[in-house]
Amino acid sequence: MAVRPYLSAAQYEWALPFYDPASKILGLDSARRELVLRARIGPKSRILDIGCGTGTLGVILKSRHPDIEMIGLDPDPKILRRAQRKAKRAHATLDLIRGFSDTIPLPDESVDTVFSSFMFHHLERHEKSNTLRALVRVLRPGGNLLLLDFARVKSGQDAFWARLWAPTARLKDNSEERIIALLHEAGFAKPAVIGHCSLTFGISEAAIYQASAPSR
Ligand SMILES: C[S@@+](CC[C@H](N)C(=O)[O-])C[C@H]1O[C@@H](n2cnc3c(N)ncnc32)[C@H](O)[C@@H]1O
Known about the structure:
By secondary structure, the chain is an alpha/beta fold.
């Protein structure tokens, strides 16, 4: 993997151990569970979680569907080590790969479902388009993408959150209209917002998107 800059889950390394507890308090865990409930997972599916972070989504998915092959991809080696430890504690097998979401080291049409949970706002504009094109490539025809990310911050709160946490500065480029347009551009069929979840005690909201890889 060619190393290049990326926005990690926690702005400061010392903050990484607090990522999971903070996520829980701020409502991200229940949003992830909602995302998983929305997915239709077939038996023995091959599932990819891009920007898998500490592996929470993979562990939830494996507990509900033990027969799936669960792959987690993230460029951050420290967070992947955490994910590995978490998976071991949960007796869940996760195949963790170090890499970027726009250069996925998997063959064409080899994945049934892709999940993206609170990672899309970490990407630069060009990385978003390139990532979605990479997903169209690795998904089997008709395979699904389920994407969960911050959608809105109550007006006037943007500057506060951006100061508190660098990735939120990129939220301006993360509106529902923009993500749906990018999904169309990348060639996904029927992109749609299929749900919303309240976060951070009602200050912000996450949207759940679903789109299908084109049948070829
Ligand atoms: C806020 S965390 C979300 C982690 C996890 N999906 C969750 O729900 O908790 C964002 C993750 O995206 C990863 N990330 C940042 N840039 C990336 C890229 N270009 N490709 C893949 N992952 C990336 C970060 O390392 C981080 O682990």
